Amino acid sequence: MNPRKAFFACLERSPPALFEAALWIAAEHDAAVQPLLILQELTLLQQQVGVGMPMLPADELGQPLLRRLNDLGFAQDDFTPLRPAAALLDKVLQRKRGQPLAMGLIALELARRLDIPMVGVNFPGHFLLRVPGADHLLDPCGGRRLYPNDCRELLHRQYGPNLKLQADHLHTANPRSILQRLSRNLRQLHLSNDAPLDALVDAERVLELGNASAADYLARASLYQRLDCPNAERFDLEHALLLSEDPIQRLRLTERLGHLPPNSVVH
Q1: Residues 136-194 pLDDT 10s
Q2: Which residue, among 109, 107, 129, has the nearest Cα to 20 in the 3D structure?
Q3: Residues whose CB falls within 8 Å of the CB of residue 87, separated by 6 or more in sequence, listed in order
């Protein structure tokens, strides 16, 4: 089974194998990555985390788990500009540095193994975690508690004061949406690190996961433009045009389509 098929097979399990699926994403970019071996090796990290955990009810162990990971050297990757290694789980486990989403995926897998209730939250710009029923969120990079005012501050720090905190910013994320976010992150990281073919792999996965936006089709169209594939670029621009609700964007897409050569069919 190739990595893409293995990835989707993980999503079809009940419950979905979120962490393993993310490892298969890494395997798509590096044939040397062995997800099943990494899953076995994670047992050592699980034991190291478990040894330092306090004796508390399971629903009070979310923050101690994240602090324990921090004690073991796991932290947010602050390297500028960020590299794909900040989102590829095999590299994050090796380096103990990663984006909040990658750190959150490791924490969620360890929580699952240690029977600690924990879910992911697709907060804008910074993936967060929550223990169900708690009145706060948790930063996967160190375990800081975030109450509503902290969330507003985090949002404003990243997007400015005009973006208001909304209820859907705090909703529990399902595995498919988490993996789609990871794929979008990797698409951007590969693109900004001059790896358009790798970015294309991620862009295709974003669309295969479903509920893609006009921005997702535009992102892939731009990759096809860079790779000089006008027919594929046209296909994605047309889909973006169908999905877009912004009249200015629709006008620009129409103009861009007009500058492309007509579809050519090879017999």
Answers
A1: 999 999 999 999 999 999 999 999 988 999 999 999 999 999 999 999 999 999 999 99
A2: 109
A3: 98, 99, 101, 102, 182, 185, 186, 189
Helix axes 18-29, 196-208, angle to 10 degrees: 150
Residue 230 has a CB neighbour count (10 Å cut-off) of 16
How many CB atoms are located within 10 Å of the residue 150 CB? Answer: 14
* Exposure string over 95-109, b if 16+ CB within 10 A, otherwise e: bbbbbbbbbbbbbbb
Give burial (CB, 10 Å; 0-12/13-18/19+) of 222: middle
Tokens 């209730």 appear where? 117
The superfamily CATH assigns to domain 177-258 is: Tetratricopeptide repeat domain (1.25.40.10)
Confidence of residue 266 (pLDDT cuts 50, 70, 90): very low
Tokens 């620009």 found at: 252
Domain range summary for the chain, segments of one domain joined by +: 3-170, 177-258
